[in-house]
Every structure is written in C-alpha cells, then in structure tokens.
Write a sequence for this structure.
C-alpha cells in the first residue's frame, strides 16, 4: 500500500474550467507524446545498459574512479556494438567461464582480456536466463526497499500537515550534509534534497564512494545515497515521522542514478522529461530513452518524481510563459503515466516567479497555482520559491517568500520548497534556513486552512486568468502538433529543434551523449527493460 | 547640529535616524547554546566590530548548539571619503541608437560578440541578461542591437570550444559569465580562459575579453588577464557602451 501525497480539498473545485478544454489538452499531449514513446522504445543507450548491470549487482570502480559498469559496457560496445544490448554478450561470456562473476568479468574486460560475441540458439537462451535471473535480484531489492519505506511510513507516520516542507542541503561533503540534514529535519523539514555538484549532469559515469568535495553541491553516488538515507532513518525514528530523501535522476546517467535511488530507498527524484535537453544540451533522443527507463524504475521503486517546470520561468517571463509550464506538466504527466508512474508519484513542478512590481502579480500567481492544482488533482505538486526576483535585498526577499508560502497554503500545494532570503547571495546560512522555516511555519500555522475559504468568484480576475493560461496551453499544443515534420522527426522533437521551449533550439541529431545512443537491432535483449515493461503492464500503465 | 544644506563632509558615519548617530544592525550566529554566556559573547563580538554601545535586541536558539542574534548599535568607526577607491565608469553611457550609429559609422560592419558560461557553471542567467533580447532591468540585451551580432553559446562551454568559436565567428569581443562558484572556481576558470586566448592569438589580436558575475571584483581585470570585469547589477547598455568605447573609433586605443 503506497501513501498518497496529495492535499485533500474540501468542496467543489475552485476554478470553473471547461472539462472539454481540459480533455482536449490531455488528448493533444498524448498525441505529441506517443511517437516520442515509440522512438524511446526503439533505442537504447549506454546508460540504460549500465543501469541494467547495476541492477544485476555490478558495483565499484577502478583505481582511477572509472566504474566497472562503464568498463564492461564499453568493452561490449567495442566488440559487439550497443544495438543488441549488453546482457546477452555479458552473460554469454560468463557462461563460457571467461570470469567467475560480473565483477571479475568487468576487470578482465577492462584490460581487453575478454572476447565478447552475440550468442545464438541454446547459448543465447542460457545467457538470457542467467541475465534475467541476475537482474531479477536487483528488481527484488527495489521491491524490498519499497516495502521497507511503506513499513516505516506506517510505523512512524507521514508529516502531520501539507504542504510538506522541502529543504535543500548542499555542502559538497556528504558527512557535513548528514549533520545539516538532521538539523533541518529537527527544524521541521519533511523532505531533504541533496543538491548535486554542478556539472555532474554532464559526467557520463556515476562517481563512486563517499565524497567530501563538490562544487555547489554533493556528488550523487550510491554510497552517498546509502549514508544519507541511514542518517534520515535515524532522525525519522527520533522525530516520529518519516523524513524523505530527494536527489536528481537527470543528466547523462539518469537511468543509473534512478536504479541506485531505488536500490538505496531514496523517496523522490528530480526527473524532468525535457530539462536535460533544454538546459544541459543533452541529445533529445538520449534524454527521452533514458527518461523512459528511469521513470519505469521509479514507478517500480515507489519513488515520487519531481519535474522541473520552474526552470522555464527562470529564463522566460513568468506571465508570458505561464502556459509553457502547463504544457510541460501535461507532457510530463503523459510520459510519466506511460512509464507506469501512478498519479501520486507525479510531483509536477511550478514556481512563484512573476515580477513582483507587476500589478496584480500575486493574484496571477494564485491563478497559475490553482490551475495546476485543479488540472492535476492527485499529483503531489511541487511549489518552487522565487529565485529570479531575489535581488540581494534580503528583507524584501523575506517578504516575497512569505507571499510565496501564502500562495502555496491558499492553493493547496503538496510540496513546498522552502525559499531562502539569501537566494542568489550566498549558500544559505544556518540562520537563513531557520528564518525560512519560521516564515513557512508562521504562514501554514496562520493560514493553512485557507483552502477551505478561498473560492475565487466566477469570471473574476483569477478565474479568467486561469482559463486564459489553459487556452494558451491548448493553443501551443495545437501549434506543435501541426508542426511540419521537415526532418522526419516526431512533432515534439521538431518543436524542440525549432526553439519552442525556453527559446532554445535543440535538434534531435545534436547535443551531448548522442554517441551513446543506438537503434535497437532485431533481437535486442535487456532483461531489465523486459521485467520493467511486464511490471508496468501489470499496473495498467503503458499506452 | 544644523539641518541646513552643508558641503559634503570628508568623513561620514552610518545614519540610523539622526545624522551622525552611527547606527547599524547586524545579525549573526554563534556556535553556542542559547544562555546568558552566549548573549555576552554576542555583545563582545559586537564591541570588537566597533559597535559601542551595542544593544542585543534578539537572541534565539537554533537547535541545541547554535544561537542567532540581532544586534543594533552605534559604530565608532568613521568613513574617510577621500580614501574610498572604486572603479568609476570611464566611458560614456550610450543609448542603443548611439551604439548602433557608432558601430555603423566607424566600424562599418556588425560588431561580433561571442558569449558563454564556462567551467561547470550551468547558470546562464547572467549571460542571458546581457545578451538575450529580453535583457535585464528594463534594458534590452545585446541581441536587440541591430549592429551587434551575438553568438550565445550557453552554459558549461569548454574553453577550447570558446576559443575556436571566437576564431570562427571572428569575434570582436568575448563575454564570459560566472554566476555560481565555489572555492574561487570563477577566478581559476577566468585565468584559464584568458591564458588560452593569449596562447591562441598573436599578441594584440585576441578579441576583447570581458567577464561578469556577482563574485568578481571590478578592479581585478589585470590580475585575471582580461580587459574588463563587470560586477553585480551591470546592465546591457553598460556593456554595449563599453564595447563601443573599447573597440570602435577613438576608443580603440585602449589603455
């Protein structure tokens, strides 16, 4: 039994939206997403294959920090190619007793001492069975961790009120992070996010071990995940509520990090369908393939994803681009559900980023926040604080954060990322975090029940603005659907190539990580994909 | 003291609500549990910071081991205005129209600007504020200037890639932004970048190198090996005016 993370709203929905328009928006999102899913199914990536080996239990790195999964996948790709998947060549080599186990095979492969081949007939069946059995061990561990979370939540309980309070720690040193995370949890945080070291998204390997050096964040590694989860388990028992842990399944190693998160019982993962493409210039095909696999893993592991719509508003105007947030939420919902995520796992994002000097800015924020709330009633929406208009005037920033908190309380948001008055000034002081929590606690304590009273009048400013944003979102979806398929790509990929999102042009045949993508050959085999697809189908996911 | 108009004084003190009262506020945290001793420690620190008398107006425990303080007080220090050193803008501020006209008249071709965030910094907010049409602080970015040709390479650009692009585009100026930085990464990145340009271009032929970001000191250009450093709050018009000053016509003879 999984716990829901949504806010119960009493009474009828606050916005008067035309259900046929809402329905049309979802149909258009499905029409745009469908060919992208087809494309994702037809390709694999080095990171998907490495994640498969991680699920089969291959861990560790050589003395230079290059993970064994990288060595093994590289060796197979060199000799057999990526297009068949690595499972058959790897377990065939084990069957031929090239090495006693996966770790030994990876070591020998790294020095070029193993010859890989694509097995046929009986040898193929044997390799396939052995690979499936190895990967199933990892899947069972995902299931056990999910069950352990459910048990802990049952025993310790969920946070007593919503929205849940989400705080970031990021010192670069996992041991320092653990101390800060425990302090933050004692101070009232329900969710701890460990920000990754800047630049990790572009590493084509997952660093290994406990790390004490990072830039503006701490590396995501399996050991860091384990250490932080253990620290939070300790403080959860002390506090009598289950404190959740968040990290980032994004960048070039998205599938592997998703697998590690599931294996180490992380609870939420940042995982957006287009963020890497737009903001990290990662190849679109690579992103969508990695995305789908990682979401299937999250689905099975009971992890809530957090999507990154707030990022659009850091580069585009929050009023002009409000509808692009809605479009992205709809796409994230489509891709998420297709990958087997239940609605309670779809932490769609949005943000409080309207220029504060703009007249009626707060009313517009309320309209946008309510629109998201009502379009996705069962999704644990993640409400992100102002960053763009935090100027260094910390006093004004504190007020702005108060209004952000109030909007979150009034519109029934599910997860509230705590804004810092020192945003864009310094990494938060201990006191900044304490003051920020006081701000949240005051607002939620004083006005947390306002969802009950806050009913914008029909055809008033808020209702009208929300309908306008929804109409613009449908308009944009229609425009993209009608996009000329000049390069033979899916319309969504054509639109991404033409700079429709965030004004960034990202053609499907460019970007980082493209050389790690292959179209699957006839007979491609990957037991992780097979087991995940079966599981998703059992949950009623897929198309 | 008289309240009439006065000549600018040579020294000033902070202004609370009365001229010359020297009042300031500070807040800080000490790694001490909240008790009488911690409050005494806070007052001692305030006194050593030159606050006398100091008033402890707020003290709050933050967990078992830390205490947060707000202190008001009058500082004994005087600010000697004759000893204040700043980098004053040493070029005229031009409107977009004037910038375009100057380039058109004297350069007789578009001025090419290549911009990027280098290193691991993924925050394009600074470079975008200066380059994107959208701009910053109500001013349009350089893309808006008809006579400026902008190539914005975005974030996490490698230095060799930047040098190559600058050469291929025949850049007149290279703009580099560094927003989020830790352990002086912005300084290391910038010196590596300027060294790479010095190596790749014959002396005097490298593009004008301009860096910007909230952590830079504006007086550090020479140290960093660049032509100009812009700090927090720089607007696109300031950058455009500087480029005209440094690259076009009479301004060309750079100091």
């Amino acid at each position: 039994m999984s716990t829901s993370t949504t806010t119960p709203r009493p009474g009828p929905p606050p916005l008067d939206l035309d259900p046929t328009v809402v329905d049309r928006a979802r149909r258009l999102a499905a029409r745009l997403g469908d060919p992208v899913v087809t494309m994702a199914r037809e390709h694999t990536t080095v990171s998907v294959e490495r994640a498969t080996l991680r699920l089969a239990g291959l861990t560790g790195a050589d003395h230079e920090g290059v993970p064994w999964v990288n060595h093994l996948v590289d060796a197979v790709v060199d000799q057999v190619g990526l297009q068949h998947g690595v499972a058959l060549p790897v377990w065939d080599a084990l069957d031929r007793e090239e090495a006693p186990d996966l770790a030994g095979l990876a070591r020998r492969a790294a020095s070029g001492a193993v010859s890989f081949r694509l097995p046929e007939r009986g040898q193929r069946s044997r390799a396939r069975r052995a690979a499936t059995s190895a990967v199933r061990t990892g899947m069972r561990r995902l299931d056990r961790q999910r069950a352990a979370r459910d048990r802990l939540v049952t025993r310790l309980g969920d946070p007593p009120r919503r929205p849940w309070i989400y705080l970031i720690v990021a010192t670069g040193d996992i041991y320092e992070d653990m101390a800060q995370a425990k302090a933050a949890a004692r101070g009232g945080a329900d969710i701890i996010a460990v920000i990754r070291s800047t630049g990790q998204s572009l590493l084509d390997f997952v660093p290994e071990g406990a790390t004490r050096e990072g830039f503006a964040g701490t590396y995501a590694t399996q050991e860091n995940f384990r250490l932080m989860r253990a620290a939070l388990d300790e403080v959860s028992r002390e506090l009598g509520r289950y404190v959740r842990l968040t990290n980032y399944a994004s960048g070039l190693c998205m599938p592997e990090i998703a697998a590690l998160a599931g294996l180490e019982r992380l609870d939420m993962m940042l995982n957006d369908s287009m963020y890497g493409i737009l903001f990290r210039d990662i190849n679109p095909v690579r992103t969508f393939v990695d995305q789908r696999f990682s979401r299937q893993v999250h689905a099975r592991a009971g992890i809530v994803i957090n999507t990154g719509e707030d990022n659009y508003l850091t580069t585009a105007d929050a009023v002009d681009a409000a509808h692009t947030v809605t479009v992205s939420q709809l796409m994230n919902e489509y891709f998420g559900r297709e990958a087997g995520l239940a609605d309670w796992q779809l932490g769609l994002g949005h943000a409080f980023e309207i220029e504060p000097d703009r007249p009626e800015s707060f009313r517009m924020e309320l309209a946008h926040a309510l629109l998201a709330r009502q379009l996705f009633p069962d999704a644990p929406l993640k409400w992100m604080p102002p960053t763009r208009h935090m100027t260094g005037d910390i006093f004004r920033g504190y007020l702005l954060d108060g209004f952000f908190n109030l909007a979150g309380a009034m519109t029934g948001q599910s997860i509230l990322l705590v804004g810092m008055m020192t945003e864009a000034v310094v990494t938060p002081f201990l006191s900044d975090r304490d003051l920020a929590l006081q701000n949240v606690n005051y607002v939620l304590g004083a006005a947390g029940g306002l969802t009950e009273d806050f009913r914008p009048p029909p055809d008033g400013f808020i209702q009208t603005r929300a309908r306008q944003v929804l109409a613009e979102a449908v308009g944009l979806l229609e425009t993209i659907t009608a996009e000329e398929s000049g390069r033979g790509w899916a319309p969504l990929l054509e639109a991404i190539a033409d700079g429709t999102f965030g004004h960034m042009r990202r053609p499907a045949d460019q970007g980082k990580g493209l050389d790690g993508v292959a179209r699957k050959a006839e007979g491609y085999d990957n037991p992780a994909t097979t087991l995940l697809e079966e599981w998703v189908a059992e949950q009623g996911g897929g198309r | 003291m008289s309240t009439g108009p006065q000549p600018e004084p040579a020294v000033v003190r902070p202004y609370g609500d009365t001229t010359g009262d020297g009042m300031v506020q500070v807040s800080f945290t000490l790694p001490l549990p909240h008790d009488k001793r911690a409050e005494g420690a806070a007052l001692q620190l305030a006194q050593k910071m030159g606050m006398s008398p100091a008033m402890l107006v707020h003290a709050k425990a933050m967990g078992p081991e830390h205490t947060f303080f707000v202190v008001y007080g009058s500082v004994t220090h005087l600010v000697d205005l004759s000893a204040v050193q700043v980098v004053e803008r040493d070029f005229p501020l031009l409107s977009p129209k004037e910038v375009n006209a100057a380039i058109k008249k004297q350069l007789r071709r578009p001025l090419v600007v290549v911009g990027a965030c280098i290193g691991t910094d993924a925050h394009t907010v600074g470079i975008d504020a200066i380059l994107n049409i959208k701009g910053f602080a109500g001013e349009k970015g350089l893309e808006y200037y008809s006579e400026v040709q902008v190539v914005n390479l975005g974030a996490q650009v490698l230095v060799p890639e930047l040098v190559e692009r600058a050469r291929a585009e025949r850049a007149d100026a290279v703009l580099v932004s560094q927003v989020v930085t830790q352990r002086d990464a912005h300084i290391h990145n910038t010196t590596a970048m300027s060294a790479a340009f010095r190596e790749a271009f014959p002396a005097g032929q490298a593009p004008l190198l301009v860096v910007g970001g909230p952590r830079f000191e504006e007086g550090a250009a020479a140290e960093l090996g660049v032509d100009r450093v812009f700090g927090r709050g720089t607007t696109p018009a300031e950058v455009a005016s500087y480029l005209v000053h440094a690259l076009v016509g009479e301004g060309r003879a750079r100091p």
